[in-house]
Specification:
The complex is a heterodimer.
Chain A lengths: L1 H26 L3 E2 L6 E2 L2 E3 L3 E3 L4 H8 L1 H33 L3 H16 L2 H12 L4 H8 L13 H25 L3 H9 L4 H29 L3 H6 L7 H11 L3 H28 L1
Antiparallel strand pairs in A: 1-2, 3-4
Chain B lengths: L1 H22 L16 H8 L1 H34 L6 H13 L2 H19 L7 H26 L3 H8 L4 H30 L2 H6 L7 H10 L4 H26 L5
Helix pairs in contact in B: 2-11, 3-6, 3-8, 4-6, 6-8, 7-8, 8-11
Protein name (chain B): ABC transporter permease subunit
Keywords (chain B): Cell membrane, Membrane, Transmembrane, Transmembrane helix, Transport
Family (chain B): Belongs to the binding-protein-dependent transport system permease family. CysTW subfamily.
Chain lengths: 284, 260
Amino acid sequence: MRRLQLLVPALWLAGFVALPLLVVLLLSIAQPGPGVPPFLLPFAWDGGLVLRPNWEPFGLLVADDYYVSAFLQSLWVAGGTAGLCLLLGFPMALGIARAKPHWRAPLLMAVLLPFWTGFLPRVGAWIGLLRDEGWVNGVLRGLGWIDAPLPLLYSDLALFLGMVHAYLPFAVLPLYASLSRLDLTLEEAASDLGATPATVFRTITLPLAAPGALAAFLLVFIPAAGEYVIPELLGPPEALLVGRALWQEFFQNRDWPVAAALAVALLAMLILPIRLFQRLEARR
Amino acid sequence: MRRLGLCLGLAFLWLPVLLLAGYAFSDSRIPFQWGGFSLRWFQALAANERMLEAAFLSLRVAAGSATLAMLLGGATGWVLARRGPFAGRALFGALAGAPLVLPEVVTGLSLLLTFVMLQGLTGWPAERGATTILLAHATMGAAYVAVVVQARLAGMDGMLEEAARDLGATPATAFRTVTLPLMAPSLVAGWLLAFTLSLDDVVVASFVSGPAGTTLPMLVFSMLRLGLTPEVNALAVAILLLAFLAAGGAMLALWRRTEL
């Protein structure tokens, strides 16, 4: 029984987590081929083991501006989203942490529920708000502020609104965790000694919340870097982030090795943030 | 000031969702325009065969994958919290947490490639669709269940199990009468989280599915690509309600006994 309790999840993790990662690694140096499936493995058995790795996909990622720009855009959008979530999430987390005790759980639930309630419906809501005949343009026109509709949808604005909306709960949770543990007597002591509220905030609250803020930033940055759906549905056509580039290589170009190489490169880009995040979590 | 920030943030999170929900009951052909109260778009949904088929597939996959995720994630969380040191524990923990931090496109692509390779080597899975989506979702869901279960078990030390053993219970009896009831709320919460996760996923499902399997999110995604229509709006609200109930249930299951 005890052995089974270990063996079953271990086999599962080996087959469905470890093996797939190895397969992607293998495919990223495979030859593209005309058959079904459209690739030739980087090794073959022909009287002996024959190695035939293909380094072209990775060469392409480094040499072609298209892919380089995809990675830069992903960094920019993920970093921007994480930064905005931090700015918006900090006052929210502070508000919850300093609310009356019986209010904290319901408020936290109000922040977390949208996270678990339908990702696509929320993106759909932004389409309804932002499109040319949408709610925002309707209101602005009703007020007489604009004559022609503003091109809000399929813009960077729509992209960032959608991203921040989707990922904000990720940022509030770690911020709340660190702010709710903060010793309030430290702030009291500072203000008793004559510090203004602004100084207390800058010299006590902010430094003590820094590890939580870093965790919040990373928790948003990591999934945002590979995001596909929001740039596709809300962003401008030229917002080709890594997730979108990978999707196109796989579904439109049917170039599986390049798609796999993009996945490996994305993981390589995220390995440092992931390690840093895990270290922060382990320290708690 | 703090309160203002909190109110603004909550308004930002909830306003788009509430507007969407409100306008789903509008009679107008144009989404987000009020044309009087009407349920016509929900009636249109109920008459749409393709949508019902996709919804049925999604619910089946979500229930199946959540159940599998609960069993696997429960075992994983128990191993991480209760089983002492064993060879490869660090690797086990890293792999158990990996699906939480892997980008969706990487999870989807890597699982699909694995299914293709397995099919080439063993003939299984013969076709991609409900089964492959279920297995992929179970893998992701199990990681969430493991976290919830591990946190719950770590929150109470092993004294209760030890006491049961001291009083003569076999390991199996101690597990069944002490550990399992302790885990139960986290298993329920984990099941519901895995269920909503599966019901919400479009990226991984698109990768591992074949021509036969179109889940509800995949259908909604392809419709949203063309823009928002009142039907999609009504459908979004239906999904929202279902996910809302499941997520609310999960939070209540955890909340009733543990203080946040």
